[in-house]
Specification:
Rossmann fold, alpha/beta, 7-stranded mixed sheet, 2 domains, globular, binds NADP nicotinamide-adenine-dinucleotide phosphate, 10 helices
Length: 339
């Protein structure tokens, strides 16, 4: 039997349940391609799944939603032209016809379907996009899930305009760092929060206007003063939620938009409904994105020649160390893995 190396999650609960092992080479059906993964990347989703904190977990499974590589095989002879192409993988499967929200059949590559933390992965042909020529394999692998989520949150849901003041929470995160890069390229004035001073300094170097540490006592006071000095915040991009979420309602200017796509810090403890309606705030949820969003995201990166921020590159066999870095929350940008 032909085999390959892969990271298999054998059971939920802890990092010890991840095993780097030989598994059967993936089969390919009509309409699909086998991609030799040259680089993959982690998302918080993978870590939620390892902990058992995700809906409808199915194990054993090969995790991983982000990947870039080369097409080595196709299911149908008429698709032979794809073989040899350098590609990035779009991880939204079966989104459906409605651009406003995904269908009930929607899945994300990397559970329940086997994902990219492997030497090879099978994906629908419609989910492969040409790799941007100016990016390395590692940079390309850093793009898919985070870039897509950030693009939809900023532009499709958040309707970001040039010169808007945008606040991005938890800037060290993979999605947040990609959102920062895109917002800066779009000509926005970008403010960030982080629990780490050194991450704020890195964001300042990247071009943000202001950063505030949410562990500081006077965090909210400083952020409010800075927001006022820029004429108020037009758009907040949040994936933290938690007890700080309620404060976003006080921070945003009247008529502003808050887009949320995550709850890293849990559900909000309070929610001031009166503030929301009185200030005419738009509160918008967002998840991943459509095929069109993915194409637009890649085009945006290409147009602005943005290189995704890579935190660290690990070998696939060292996957536990890579997850540990995410668990400790010390990353700035994407954590990449190479077979
Ligand atoms: N709905 C969707 O489609 C979608 C897509 C992608 C991600 N998500 C969700 O979005 C979140 C981020 O994902 P990711 O892959 O970017 O994760 P990640 O790389 O692990 O980043 C998580 C970041 O959260 C920040 N954080 C932690 N506690 C915080 C708090 N109390 N306040 C503000 N920020 C805090 C930290 O930033 P600092 O170190 O700078 O403080 C950390 O770096 C996760 O919850 C994930 O499940 C949802």
């Amino acid at each position: 039997m032909k085999t390959m190396k892969a990271v298999v999650l054998r059971d939920i609960g802890s990092l010890e349940k991840l095993s780097y092992e030989d598994v059967a080479f993936p089969i390919v059906k009509s309409g699909e391609a086998v991609v030799r993964v040259k680089a993959a990347a982690l998302n918080h989703r993978d870590w939620w799944i390892v902990q058992g904190l995700y809906a409808k977990i199915k194990v054993p499974v090969i995790l991983g939603s982000d990947g870039a590589g080369e097409v080595v095989n196709v299911g149908d002879p008429k698709d032979e032209g794809f073989v040899g192409k350098q590609v990035v993988i779009h991880p939204s499967l079966s989104w459906g016809d409605n651009s406003r929200a995904q269908s009930k059949d929607f899945r994300i590559l990397g559970m329940p379907d086997n994902g990219t933390l492997a030497e090879y992965v099978t994906v629908p042909l419609s989910n492969i996009f040409e790799k941007p020529e100016y990016l390395t394999d590692e940079e390309s692998a850093a793009l898919p899930l985070g870039g897509l989520t950030a693009y939809r949150a900023l532009f499709v849901q958040g309707k970001l305009q040039e010169k808007d003041v945008v606040l991005i929470t938890g800037i060290g995160g993979g999605v947040a760092s990609l959102a920062m890069q895109m917002a800066l390229a779009a000509g926005a004035i970008v403010m960030v929060t982080s629990g780490h001073e050194e991450k704020i300094q890195r964001a300042v170097k990247a071009g943000i206007a202001f950063g505030s540490n949410y562990n500081d006592e006077d965090f909210f006071k400083k952020l409010t003063a800075a927001a006022e000095s820029y004429g108020g915040i037009d758009l907040i991009i949040d994936s933290a939620g938690g007890k700080g979420f309620g404060d976003l309602m006080a921070l945003i200017k009247p008529g502003g938009r808050i887009v949320n796509f995550g709850a890293t810090a849990g559900n909000p403890e309070s929610f001031d409904l009166r503030k929301m309606f009185w200030k005419q705030i738009t509160l918008q949820g967002s998840t991943m994105g459509t095929h069109e969003d993915f194409g637009n995201m890649i085009a945006f990166f290409r147009l602005h020649r943005i290189k995704p921020l890579i935190d660290k590159v690990f070998l696939l066999k060292d996957v536990v160390n890579a997850f540990q870095r995410m668990k400790d929350g010390i990353q700035f940008g994407k954590i990449v893995l190479k077979p």
